[in-house]
From TrEMBL:
It catalyses: ATP + H2O = ADP + phosphate + H(+). Residues 24-52 form the DEAD-box RNA helicase Q domain. InterPro entries: DEAD/DEAH_box_helicase_dom, DEAD_box_RNA_helicase, Helicase_ATP-bd, Helicase_C-like, P-loop_NTPase, RNA_helicase_DEAD_Q_motif. Pfam families: DEAD, Helicase_C. Residues 590-600 have a biased composition (Basic residues). Gene3D superfamilies: P-loop containing nucleotide triphosphate hydrolases. The keyword Transcription regulation does not apply. ATP-binding RNA helicase involved in the biogenesis of 60S ribosomal subunits and is required for the normal formation of 25S and 5.8S rRNAs. This is RNA helicase.
Length: 614
């Protein structure tokens, strides 16, 4: 194992070398048998790189600052040692009852995920390990009673944690573990004052975990506040880890984004669950209404929706209720309006130039440890506190990521495609790129950020090449696809600007009706609820029934394969063949009905009655 000292003479472990721990399984780790049983049940057979490195160090009581990519298993890397520590204390003292662990996350979605993961890992020791999620929508009285019961693990956002500490309902007196998950995002979400207050409230000697996808100045600030000489793990997955994701880029005109999306999903060229990333909230609803014209169901995820609704949408997607989720990465979009001296494009150009010269440092971007230049730091506005959908949220069994609108940076692209090809499964990333000579040619579907698509694509290719991955061009046979163009035009014509606005207000109106907080208000003011429910939807998109079916004359002569000269080589999660047993049963039912009809015809008393015999 290679170790070296950083600028503060702190041991740093480089994760790019071959490691003995990387080849072991969970059976070789000193974990409680009940924990191993839970891991087996969840099919955790072999620890990931961050788990293999962090868990042994954590069990020794060391502070850890770990940088590992999205989806690398950071949650289990800190939860398993924490639960193991709690079980050891309970073994020696069954009556021991205290809040021993505080896990801080930037959003309620992440808090819900961590809380569910604790439940999975403690499935066979539930009586000994109890957790509480302070971000849940409950009254203050209920929350006080939960904390009074002294759960072992408390999961919270910094704001909710400090609110309960200030009201004396949450005591950190017996705290043994502190975790700051997604540490590079916590301060940028506006929790700086809360973290300063928590640093004063947390007792000395608490074991601290800082888990992050990148090492930024924010992470460095948190390290100074909470850590005492942490072991720094800079972990890079092996190059073949990313080989499970096939990456493709399609150069097309602005309106052809909609055309190709329609063809891809209507003809099932991509099978399995898909996340479509778009540039802003407006395009979320525009694309959703467009797909609805063809009978293609999808759900929308953006920061405009209430938190409970966002959690519910992710759960519905993970359960398979929806196969397509349209997500707006709002943090990128909102950040564009707040730039001062440089655009995001210019900043990343500077970063990529500096990547080639190791002696230089950059203010931000794709570098591993960015250092600030005097007077060049751009303050983040309050709008940027919204979460980035490409980070943190746990989407399960994603077959494909479709970048309908290309992200602004190569780093964001990496986070986006990290939603697929996880846990040893294959995945695909498909990105639409607008050539410079095609930008602005089709005003109704034009998106301003697409002006820089080619420059961003060059940086993405450069970054992926460094990681040992290839982003290939993908070509559709546009002569065959053009047969569907008039249908795309019809559908786009129905999705007007007013229809998009109406879709957004309808969604918010539905959330208001379902809101628990407003339930009592509506009980006292039933007229307001009635008006809200029956508010006229005068400008909704006109649905054209004929667009839901694809006539045979539109299909290429070679079928679906005729649309592309290349084979993606991806097998989806869902079965595509018709169930033969179900088909046989339906056939037999049809035969049975016909026999019953014939039999009943022969014994019809009106036809067989003979009065002469009587």
């Amino acid at each position: 194992m290679k170790r070296k000292l950083d600028a503060n003479n702190v041991p740093s472990v480089e994760g790019t070398e071959d490691k003995k721990l990387d080849s072991q399984d969970f059976e070789n780790l000193p974990l409680d048998p009940r924990l191993r049983q839970a891991l087996t049940q969840q099919k955790f057979m072999k620890p990931t790189l961050v788990q293999a490195e962090a868990i042994p160090l954590a069990l020794q009581g060391k502070d850890i600052l770990a940088r590992a990519q999205t989806g690398s298993g950071k949650t289990a890397a800190y939860l398993l040692p924490i639960i193991q520590s709690i079980l050891q204390k309970k073994t020696s003292n069954r009556a021991h009852k205290a809040i021993s662990s505080l896990i801080l996350v930037p959003t309620r979605e992440l808090a819900e995920q961590v809380h569910n993961t604790v439940a999975l890992f403690s499935a066979f020791c539930g009586k000994d390990v109890r957790s509480a999620n302070l971000t849940q929508k409950v009254s203050d009285a209920v929350q006080r009673s939960i904390l009074a019961d002294l759960p072992d693990i408390v999961i919270s956002t910094p704001a909710r944690a400090i609110a309960n500490i200030n009201s004396s309902t949450f005591s950190l007196e017996n705290l043994a573990h502190l975790v700051i998950d997604e540490a590079d995002l916590v301060l940028s979400y506006g929790y700086e004052d809360d973290m300063q207050s928590l640093a004063k409230a947390v007792p000395r000697g608490v074991q601290t975990f800082l888990m992050s996808a990148t090492l930024t100045s924010e992470v460095d600030a948190l390290k100074g506040l909470f850590c005492r000489s942490p072991v720094i793990l800079k972990l890079e997955e092996k190059e073949d880890e990313g080989a499970s994701i096939s990456q493709f880029a399609v150069r097309c005109a602005e309106d052809e984004k909609f055309l190709l999306t329609y063809v891809i999903f209507k003809l099932q060229l991509i099978k399995g669950k898909c996340i479509i990333f778009v540039g802003d909230v407006d395009r979320c609803y525009r694309l959703k209404l467009f797909l609805e014209q063809f009978g293609i169901k999808s759900c929308v995820l953006n920061s405009e929706l209430p938190v409970n609704s966002r959690i519910h949408v992710v759960q519905e997607f993970n359960k398979g209720v929806y196969d397509i989720i349209i997500a707006a990465d709002d943090q990128e979009v909102l950040g564009e309006a707040t730039r001062k001296s440089k655009s995001a494009q210019e900043e990343e150009e500077e970063v990529d130039e500096n990547d080639d010269e190791e002696s230089k440092t950059a203010s931000k971007g794709d570098n591993e440890e960015p250092k600030e230049r005097p007077g060049k730091r751009r303050k983040k506005s309050s709008k940027e506190k919204d979460y980035g959908i490409s980070r943190g949220i746990d989407f399960q069994d994603v077959a494909c990521v479709l970048n309908f609108d290309l992200p602004k940076t190569s780093k964001s692209y990496t986070h986006r495609i990290g939603r697929t090809g996880r846990a040893g499964k294959t995945g695909m990333a498909l990105s639409f790129v607008i050539p410079a000579d095609q930008f602005g040619k089709h005003k109704p579907t034009s998106f301003s950020a697409a002006k820089h698509d080619e420059a961003v694509l060059a940086k993405i290719i450069k970054r992926q090449t460094k990681l040992g991955r290839e982003l290939k061009p993908y070509h559709f046979d546009m002569k065959q696809v053009d047969a569907f163009r008039y249908r795309m035009t019809d559908a786009l014509r129905a999705v007007t600007r007013l229809a998009v606005q109406d879709a957004r207000t309808t969604e918010i109106r539905q959330e208001l009706v379902k809101s628990e907080k407003l339930k009592r208000h509506f009980e006292e003011n039933p007229d307001e609820l009635r008006h809200l429910r029956h508010d006229g939807e005068l400008r909704s998109a006109r649905v054209q029934a004929h667009l839901k079916h694809v006539p045979d004359y539109l299909m290429p002569s070679k079928g679906r394969r005729g649309l592309s000269s290349e084979d993606v080589g991806y097998v989806g999660f869902h079965k595509t063949k018709e169930n033969p047993i179900r088909k046989a049963r339906e056939k037999n039912r049809g035969k049975a009905r016909s026999k019953v009809g014939k039999r009943s015809g022969k014994v019809d008393p009106l036809k067989t009655f003979n009065a002469s015999k009587r």
